[in-house]
User: What shape does this take?
Amino acid sequence: MSYTSVSMTRPGKAWDGVEPGSDEWAAMQEKQQAVISEAGGTIVAGGWAVGFNAFINIITYPDIDCSMKVVARLTAANMAEIESSALISPEEWATLIS
Assistant: This one.
């Protein structure tokens, strides 16, 4: 059974100083999308919402664990400040980001 998330994600510290529309911006987006793809996620719709200063996406994953892995990895890499996510215990955290 698949899992679909609707997320609002603000750029993390890794994005500091990166100008929207720049080559560096595109490279950061590619890194973010690679993390999603590696976890089996498919971005159905979404993108950068200027008015919210956030990425708003609808993403389908094979299951909720894959979604939680993306949240953990993007947060650990300072690429995202997740506005909404599943609860992850400290014990699960180390496993999810490895």
